[in-house]
Amino acid sequence: MSDATPNEHTPQDDAERIRLKRLAKLQTSASGFAAPSGSSTPAIGTSRPSSPKPPLPKVISKPSPATKKILEPTPTPLEPPIRKKAPLHLDLDIWEDEMITGVLKVTLDKSVAEQSSYDIVWLKPLADEMKSEAVVQSLRLNIDLIDRLLIARLEIDPKAMTDDLDFLPVLASLPPQQTIFEYLVGAWKRLNMFRTSLIKKGYTPAETQTALTRLDKLRDLVISYSGLTLQEPEMFPQPSGRLLGPPELVTPLLSLSTLSTPLYSSSTASANTLSPTDVELFLQDLARRFEPDNEIDEVLGDVVRQLLFHESLFRPEGLGGAVATWRGVVGGLEALVSVKSIAVMITRMPEWIPANATAANFEKLSLMGPLCRLSVFAREWPAIAQSYFSEPEKRSPQDLESSYASLRGTLKSLQGTLFHIFNTLVRAAPKSREAVLQYFNKIVSLNVKRAGLQVDPDTVASDSFMVNIQSVLYRFAEPFMDASYTKIDRIDPLYFAHSDRIDVTEETRIKATAQEASQWAEENRLSGGPAPNFISDIFYLAVATSHYGYQKTISSYIELDKHMEDIERHLSFLNGDGSWMGTPLQARIQASINNINNEKAKVQSAQYAYEAQLKDPELVFRSIGFTIFLSVWLIRQADPKKTHPNPLAELPLSKDVPMSFRVLPEYIVEDIVDYFHFATRHAPDKFELAGKTELLTFILTFLSSTWYIKNPFLKSKINDVLFLSIWGYGRESTGILGGLLNTHPLALKHLMSMLMHFYIEVEQTGASSQFYDKFNARRNISYVLKVVWNNPTHREALNREAENVDKFIRFINLMINDVTYLMDESLSELTQIHDIQTEMDNKEEWNSKPLEYRREREGTLRQLERHASSYTTLGRSTVELLKLFTAETKKPFMMPEIVDKLAAMLDYNLEALVGPRMQNLKVRQPEKLRFDPKALLSDVLQIFLNLSDQPEFMKAIAGDGRSYSKGLFEQAERIMFRRSLKSGTDLEKWRLLITKVEEAKETLEAEDDLGDIPDEFLDPLMFSIMRDPVILPTSRTTIDRSTIKSHLLSDTTDPFNRMPLAIEDVVSNTELKSRIDAFLIERKQRNKAAGSGLEDSMNVTH
């Protein structure tokens, strides 16, 4: 053995020193560690002839000058008078012998083994072998022998039989159940103690470095055999009945729980097992040794597999169980990925993205899948819903909150750790970053069908898996979602042309055909340029995952609400009036009711489990934050200046929609709207910290510029979001946006115009359900208008809108049409409800009816009640709107194409409310049907009063031959007085109105006595004499201008051939008008002369 020459400090030495400092921190008892000596490790040299020692003077001569120098007076007074000890001398040969003996617990000297009671193993076969060799060997151990020493120790089998009495004590003293890996771990731990002791001793740098170099050689050997043992545990003799190979490293990894105390560690760590503080250092050594040529894949591949597919991740109780072994899996994985080379290795394993995996089994076959699918949803984890939310009908709010808090705390820790793991993988190397992106992309591509309306949940990824992945992606997005949007331009707006990572070829675009989208992509495709950055990848992957995953989970939760409503209706149907009690049918019906109640409990438990995650405040905040950012980004793409939100885009947007906006997947808009819809309804308080202004801006932008979105359902849903955002909650009586609608400059400027524009547009959406959809949309608008009506700025905006006569008249016409239909339907349904209830009130006759008849009538009643409730609500809201508008602006309501229709509608509904039919509207529990006849009548009367100073309106009422009568109006006056519906002043106005109408009626009757009218003078639709005849350009039909204008308000086609028609296209028939005017003059003169003659003939004087 040759002495090593002193070396300067190397980078490896510095790295080792850093590692030692980390070891010192992790090992709380490290300060007590020392190199084995005395009784623990006998001095080998004392039991055998020692070689001559170097002359003492030579050993101590070099430190002497240094010592003297320290004792000399110091020239500078600033230097503290501290005496430095002279560095100790290290006898490398003796130290090396002691170190190898202490680390490997082996010797070639029998006496050393005997002195240690065979704790140190006498390698007799190797000693005999070396004696037989020609070269004379010393019994002192050195670094050149470590290979032979270690192999000789590993080859000893404690179970072996021997006739050698000298060697028998060696075999008898070996731990019978100790595995090779445990022995090597013990050697590695002892080696670390020797290293710590060596550095603390303060030997000369050169000697210390030489010793460290020899320690590292032994370390490499121990780690090499440790890795080989993990791969091929049967290479050396092993005890029976023990788990060997990868499980031996998996067990200490499972002890690294980040969420609780170590699960597999005892209070006193074994000298031959890896404690939680040892694992990371051991993994680093393994990685350093086996990283070249990717040897680490073979060493740790099975360890990773056994850890990440641990059986605890597949237990029915999931993360809700009492034995939380899954937490150890999380901690172990964190330790593995903390070593960069291991992190990279994990992402190149075949199971990272398993070949031929399907959407349904990817989360069970991929390495990260089992961890990422842990959650609370009842479909995947029914045991959680059963244990946390059993007997849901008995759960108090406090009990529910306790369960929520427990589950949410666990979910928060799990999802935070999952992000930490993925983030560590991303930062490990470019290859692992790309592998993570490919992992997320694979999830998206496999689950494209998951967003479908009719999808079998067994064929796609679970809600649990998708929501956890969404949570990870939200956290990745947070760094570029700053409040000032300074990084928003780092997102590539042409991503779908520049990258093929996310395939959107089959997706519907916001406002482009598939051909237009394909052409745009081809025109903007990069040729040899850099791929989109990581920010762009994460942004678009988060959006896609939301569409295919998270939003579908929310949709499933909402479907549970509908299912619960169906169950309640079924229960109500089964219970009926209770007449089945005591009959032969009782047993069967009661059994059905019990089954339905059991189903109800399951659904309710599942609802609570969904709410534990979907309404988790932390997830909601992250979701709102991302959705807000996405909405701002989307408006920026629509903004011609591409500067939104600094400054805000100018509204309404340009009519020229940019192609880069048109070709974006429609699901971007859909997901924004859907999540806003969910959050405004289920978590409105979460907007209090941030997001109100952005929510308002998004709504105003796309409802004032509806031509940017093709899908009518999306536009209607934006309107729904506006409606939900004014629902009161807590102390906010006008909801999230009520205050902003009355104060924000954008709302004050654009809200009224936007509402009127959309009220008109929703009339024809092109959808098969447009007739019913429009009523819901307009109900929402009427509620919004009521919230802002007392604001003078908004009323001024309404008056400005009224100056656009054609648009405003169309708006009014649609309101009148709606009231006409809704009031007619609601009053009709109420009449039928009245009839059935009257029939049921006659108990004797009702009970005599067959059971099937009664159940059929009860079902009809429930259906009528649902419909009537909807119709009365919609009708009342539209009547209220008319009341507000007629009070504010009257002129538009007096236009010829409007006034007659308005008067007829009001007269008809007044007759229904106060005429003979009103008795048929009396129903039980009218409030259940949202029917308030007193308030409805008051609103109708108020519209009459608002317009009572308009002569045209008086004339229109008088001309309504179907519903108007003086007696009807006088009956309304009596009810008005009796029920105190109006003030005394209003009663006087009403009496005056009756007088004016009667006068107008007399005038009309006089004017209408025209005798026989030529057919060519009659309007072909109204059969009244035309006052302003016009010719329709395509059908060449002559019709009165007011008639065709009234028709075009609801239908933009020629009524005679269905061809497109605008009022500007009609041509005045001046020749016919002249003839009609002459006819009217002639008839009026004739009637006047006839009237004078009659008066003269009756004037008899004497």
From TrEMBL:
Pathway: Protein modification; protein ubiquitination. It is found in: Cytoplasm; Nucleus. Residues 28-50 have a biased composition (Low complexity). Keywords: Cytoplasm, Nucleus, Transferase, Ubl conjugation pathway. The keyword Cytoplasm applies. Residues 1012-1086 form the U-box domain. It comes from the Eukaryota. InterPro entries: Ub_conjug_fac_E4_core, UBE4, Ubox_domain, Znf_RING/FYVE/PHD. Residues 1-82 are annotated as: Disordered. Belongs to the ubiquitin conjugation factor E4 family. This is Ubiquitin elongating factor core-domain-containing protein. It comes from Lentinula lateritia. The lineage of its organism: Eukaryota, Fungi, Dikarya, Basidiomycota, Agaricomycotina.
